[in-house]
Backbone:
C-alpha cells in the first residue's frame, strides 16, 4: 500500500475533477464547505477566491494545503463489459500569503494548480485511437493587492501568470507487417496571463448582547487565460516506413488552450455566540467553458494532417453551499454540497474527460492549535454516472465515476504590529 | 483482541471498497430464439474471407472472414478451410522510390511478373481436406446459379468451375486449366464425378446447420461488372433474375427443411467499390480513350460516368488509352451504359432476395444500404474508414473485398440484425482490433 501511495505521488499530480478540468480544491476550509468561499474571506485562500477579502485579514497569513485525489472511473461500451481507467491518484497543492502593508492596503501572493486533468488507459484498450493517456497541468502565480475603499467595502485584484504543460498519447491506425498500429506522443508547454479581481463587503453586522450576526458579500472574476503552446513536440513511433513522411519520428506543432473565465457571486452569514459560531456560505460560479470550443494541433511537417477536434463546451453554473460550526473558536466541523453542471454536451463526451452533471458532498474539520496556527482537513465525495457518446469518434460508453478527495491545510499567521504595540498596552 | 482489531479494519476496508465500486458487471450473453451450436455460412468470396485478390492467412486474413468474426462473438466453433503459406498468392504493397505501389499476385500466364510478386503456395494445390466438415462453406466466385445444376450441360460447366483435383477424390475427367478446375477456391469440397456428382446444395444439406448466414448473390452481379461488362467468359455472365430466384429459393428451402434459423443479405452496389472509383479522369488529368462494350467497336473519349477499373492504371502508365488508336480495352472499363445495367441488375436480384427471404421467413441484412454508409465514411472508436483505395482503410488491395477491419464492420452489421430478429444480445466485435491495410 505504501509503495502504491509513493508511486502515485511521483506520477503526474493532476486529475480531471468535475466541472471540466477545473480543480476546485483551492482552500481546505472552502473545500469542506462545498467550495463556497468568495463571501467568506476568513483565511489566506481568499487571495484566490476573492482578492478583496484580504482586507479581512490583519497581520500576515500563510495557508498551504494539498489534496489527495483518488479517482475511479469505469466504462462500459457495447463491445466491452468493463474498462477501468488507470489514472494515477493526484496531489494538487496550493500556497497563499496575505500580508498587511498598512491599514488600507494588503499584499498577497499565490501559487496553485487551478486546472488539471489526467486520464490513462491500458495500452490495448478499445478507445486507444481516441485517447491513450492525457495530462494537463497548470501552475498559477498571482501577486495581489487589495484596498479598503470604505470600512465595509474592499476591492482587490491580482495579475495571474500561468505556466501550463500538456502531454497526450494515442494510437495511430496504421499497420505494417511487424506492427499493428503506430503511436503519437504529443507534448507542449506554454504560458499565459490573466487577472483575478474581486469586491468584498462586510455589508451588515447585527450585534446583540450575547450574539453577533455578520453578513458578508463577495464578487470575483477570474479572467480567461489563453495558453499558447508555441513549440509543442510530437513523436510518432511504430510507423510503417512508407508513411514516415506523413508521420515522421519527430516534428513540432503549435496549439492553444484557453482556460475559461470564472465569475462568482457569494455571500456568507455568521452567527457567533460566546461559545460557538455557525456560519453559512453560498457561492454561484459561472464558468465560461465556451472558450474550449476546439482543440487544434497544427503540425510543422506539411504532410502530417493537422488535427482539429470540436469540443463545443458550454458555459456552466455551479451552486455551492457550506456550513461551519465552530466550538469555542477552536474546534470546527464543516459540511457542504455543490451542484455542478457539466460543460460537456451529449455527443461530445470523450473518454479523456467523462464529465457529468452531479451533486457532490463535502465535509471538513478544523482545529485551532493556538492563535497563530491552525489545521484544516477536508473530504469530497463525488459519484456520477453518465451514458453518452463522442460522435466524431464513433464511440459510445456508459461511465461510472467515483472520486474521493482528502485534503489537509495548514494556516499560520502573525502580526508584527501586535508585537510592537504590546508594551504600550502594558 | 488482535483478531477483533484486524476484523474491524477488514470491515472498514470492505465498506470503503463497496462504496467505491465503479466496475460494471460482465456481460451475460443471451442467445434468444436461435440455436447457434452449428453455425454455417454460405456465400462467395466476401464470405470465404478472400482479400487482396486471393486467399491468404499470414495475418489471419482468411481466418477473419466476417462469419468467423460473428462466430467468435457468439462463442461457437467455426471450422474454415484455411490456406497455409502464401495461399493462392495475393497482392501486397511495396515502397519504392518514395512511392507506395501495389504488387500484383504472381500470374503464371505472363512472363513479366514483378520480382516481388507473391506466387501461390505449393500446399495450395491440395489446401484442404475434403472429408472434413466445414462451417464456412463459402466459395470465392460462387454464383447462386452454381448451387445446383439443372442438366448435364450446367453440371459440366459448374463442376469444371468448382470441382476438385485432389487424387483421393477421383480426378475430374473434364479438365479445366492444366488439369485443375477453373476455380480453385472450391477445392475444399468434394463435388464427386460428373456421373456421380455432389452438388453445392448437397453440401448445404449435409451441413445440418442450426443457424446460417447467406450472403450469396454478390458474385452473380460482380463478376460481370469487374470484367468491364464482358459476358463472353462464362464466369462473368450476369445471372438471370428468374434463375437466380429459383436457386435462391432452393437454398432457403434446404435451410428451412433442416429447421435452421438464419439471415440472408442483399447485394451491395459493387460499382461503388474502390476497383471502380479509384482511377478517375479527375485524377488522371488527361483524356482517356476507351473501347465500349464487348459487342461494339465504338472508340470514344471517356466521360466521368464511365468507370475505369483499378487494373487500368498500369496500362495508362504505359501510355495505353491516351490516344484514340490505342484505347483502353473494354474489359478495363465499365462504361456509363454498363454501369446502369449493373445497377439495375443488382436491384433486380435484391428484389428477388427480399421476396425469397420473406417467403421462407428469414430476415435480411441490408448490405446494400450498409455498404453505402461505409462508402460515405464511418468512424468507430476513433478509426475513420472510407471506401477510398488503400488510405480508406476498410478495403483490401483488390478494391472489392473488405480487409479484416472491414469484415469486422460487416460482422457487426449482421450481429445487429441477428440480435434484432432473434432476441439475442451478441456483442459486436471491436473494429479497431482487426487489421486494416498492411503498409510496407
Residues:
Amino acid at each position: 500500500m505504501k509503495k502504491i501511495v509513493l508511486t502515485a505521488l511521483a506520477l503526474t499530480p493532476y486529475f480531471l475533477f468535475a466541472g471540466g478540468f477545473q480543480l476546485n480544491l483551492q482552500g481546505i476550509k472552502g473545500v469542506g464547505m462545498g467550495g463556497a468561499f468568495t463571501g467568506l474571506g476568513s483565511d489566506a485562500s481568499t487571495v484566490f477566491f476573492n482578492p478583496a477579502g484580504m482586507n479581512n485579514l490583519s497581520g500576515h497569513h500563510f495557508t498551504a494545503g494539498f489534496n489527495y485525489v483518488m479517482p475511479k472511473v469505469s466504462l462500459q461500451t457495447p463491445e466491452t463489459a468493463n474498462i477501468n481507467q488507470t489514472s494515477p491518484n493526484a496531489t494538487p497543492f496550493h500556497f497563499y500569503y496575505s500580508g498587511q502593508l498598512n491599514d488600507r492596503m494588503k499584499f498577497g501572493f499565490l501559487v496553485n494548480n487551478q486546472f488539471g486533468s489526467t486520464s490513462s488507459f491500458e495500452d490495448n484498450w478499445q478507445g486507444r485511437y481516441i485517447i491513450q493517456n492525457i495530462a494537463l497541468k497548470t501552475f498559477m502565480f498571482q501577486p495581489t493587492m487589495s484596498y479598503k475603499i470604505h470600512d465595509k467595502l474592499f476591492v482587490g485584484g491580482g495579475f495571474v501568470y500561468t505556466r501550463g504543460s500538456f502531454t497526450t498519447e494515442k494510437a495511430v491506425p496504421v499497420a505494417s507487417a511487424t506492427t499493428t498500429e503506430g503511436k503519437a506522443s504529443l507534448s507542449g508547454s506554454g504560458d499565459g496571463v490573466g487577472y483575478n479581481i474581486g469586491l468584498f463587503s462586510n455589508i451588515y453586522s447585527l450585534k446583540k448582547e450575547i450574539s453577533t450576526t455578520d453578513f458578508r458579500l463577495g464578487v470575483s472574476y477570474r479572467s480567461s487565460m489563453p495558453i499558447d503552446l508555441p513549440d509543442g513536440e510530437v513523436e510518432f513511433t511504430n510507423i510503417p516506413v512508407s508513411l514516415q513522411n506523413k508521420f515522421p519520428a519527430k516534428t513540432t506543432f503549435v496549439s492553444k488552450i484557453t482556460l475559461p473565465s470564472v465569475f462568482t457571486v457569494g455571500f456568507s452569514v455568521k452567527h457567533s455566540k460566546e461559545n460557538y459560531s455557525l456560519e453559512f456560505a453560498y457561492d454561484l460560479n459561472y464558468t465560461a467553458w465556451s472558450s474550449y470550443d476546439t482543440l487544434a494541433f497544427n503540425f510543422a511537417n506539411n504532410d502530417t494532417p493537422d488535427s482539429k477536434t470540436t469540443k463545443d463546451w458550454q458555459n456552466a453554473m455551479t451552486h455551492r453551499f457550506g456550513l461551519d460550526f465552530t466550538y469555542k473558536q477552536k474546534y470546527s466541523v464543516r459540511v457542504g454540497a455543490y451542484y455542478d453542471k457539466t460543460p460537456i454536451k451529449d455527443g461530445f463526451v470523450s473518454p479523456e474527460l467523462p464529465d457529468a452533471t452531479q451533486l457532490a458532498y463535502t465535509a471538513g474539520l478544523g482545529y485551532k492549535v493556538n492563535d497563530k496556527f491552525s489545521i484544516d482537513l477536508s473530504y469530497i465525495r463525488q459519484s456520477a454516472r453518465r451514458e453518452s457518446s463522442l460522435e466524431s469518434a464513433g464511440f459510445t460508453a456508459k461511465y461510472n465515476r467515483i472520486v474521493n478527495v482528502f485534503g489537509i491545510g495548514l494556516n499560520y499567521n502573525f502580526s508584527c504590529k501586535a508585537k510592537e504595540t504590546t508594551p504600550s498596552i502594558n | 483482541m488482535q483478531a477483533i482489531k484486524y476484523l474491524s479494519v477488514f470491515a472498514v476496508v470492505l465498506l470503503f471498497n463497496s462504496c467505491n465500486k465503479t466496475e460494471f458487471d460482465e456481460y451475460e450473453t443471451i442467445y434468444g430464439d436461435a440455436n447457434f451450436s452449428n453455425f454455417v455460412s454460405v456465400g462467395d468470396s466476401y464470405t470465404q474471407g478472400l482479400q487482396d485478390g486471393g486467399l491468404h492467412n499470414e495475418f489471419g486474413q482468411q481466418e477473419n472472414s466476417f462469419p468467423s468474426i460473428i462466430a467468435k462473438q457468439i462463442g461457437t466453433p467455426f471450422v474454415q478451410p484455411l490456406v497455409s503459406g502464401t495461399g493462392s498468392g495475393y497482392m501486397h504493397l511495396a515502397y519504392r522510390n518514395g512511392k507506395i505501389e501495389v504488387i500484383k499476385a504472381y500470374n503464371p500466364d505472363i512472363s513479366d511478373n514483378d520480382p516481388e510478386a507473391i506466387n501461390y503456395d505449393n500446399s495450395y494445390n491440395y489446401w484442404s481436406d475434403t472429408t472434413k466438415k466445414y462451417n464456412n462453406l463459402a466459395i470465392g466466385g460462387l454464383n447462386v446459379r452454381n448451387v445446383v445444376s439443372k442438366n448435364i450441360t450446367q453440371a459440366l460447366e459448374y463442376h469444371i468451375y468448382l470441382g476438385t483435383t485432389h487424387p483421393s477424390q477421383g480426378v475430374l475427367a473434364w479438365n479445366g486449366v492444366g488439369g485443375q478446375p477453373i476455380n480453385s477456391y472450391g477445392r475444399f469440397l468434394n463435388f464427386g464425378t460428373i456421373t456421380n456428382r455432389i452438388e453445392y446444395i448437397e453440401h448445404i444439406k449435409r451441413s445440418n446447420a442450426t443457424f446460417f448466414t447467406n450472403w450469396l448473390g454478390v458474385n452473380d452481379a460482380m463478376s460481370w461488372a469487374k470484367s468491364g461488362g464482358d459476358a463472353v467468359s462464362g464466369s462473368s455472365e450476369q445471372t438471370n433474375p428468374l434463375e437466380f430466384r429459383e436457386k435462391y429459393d432452393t437454398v432457403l428451402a434446404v435451410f428451412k427443411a433442416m429447421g435452421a434459423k438464419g439471415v440472408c443479405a442483399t447485394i451491395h452496389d459493387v460499382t461503388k467499390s474502390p476497383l471502380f472509383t479509384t482511377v478517375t479522369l479527375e485524377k488522371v488529368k488527361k483524356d482517356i480513350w476507351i473501347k465500349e462494350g464487348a459487342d461494339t467497336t465504338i472508340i470514344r473519349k471517356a466521360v466521368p460516368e464511365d468507370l475505369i477499373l483499378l487494373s487500368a492504371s498500369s496500362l495508362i502508365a504505359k501510355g495505353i488509352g491516351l490516344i484514340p488508336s490505342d484505347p483502353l480495352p473494354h474489359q478495363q472499363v465499365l462504361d456509363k451504359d454498363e454501369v446502369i445495367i449493373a445497377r439495375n441488375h443488382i436491384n433486380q436480384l435484391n428484389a428477388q432476395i427480399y421476396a425469397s427471404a420473406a417467403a421462407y421467413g428469414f430476415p435480411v441484412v441490408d448490405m446494400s444500404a450498409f455498404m453505402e454508409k461505409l462508402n460515405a465514411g464511418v468512424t468507430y472508436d476513433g478509426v475513420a474508414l472510407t471506401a477510398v483505395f488503400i488510405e480508406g482503410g476498410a478495403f483490401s488491395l483488390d478494391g472489392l473485398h473488405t480487409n479484416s477491419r472491414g469484415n469486422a464492420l460487416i460482422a457487426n452489421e449482421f450481429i445487429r440484425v441477428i440480435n434484432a430478429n432473434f432476441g439475442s444480445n451478441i456483442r459486436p466485435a471491436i473494429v479497431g482490433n482487426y487489421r486494416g491495410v498492411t503498409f510496407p
In short: Chain A has a mean pLDDT of 91. Chain A has one domain: 2-425. Residues 2-425 of chain A form a domain with the Porin fold (CATH 2.40.160.60).
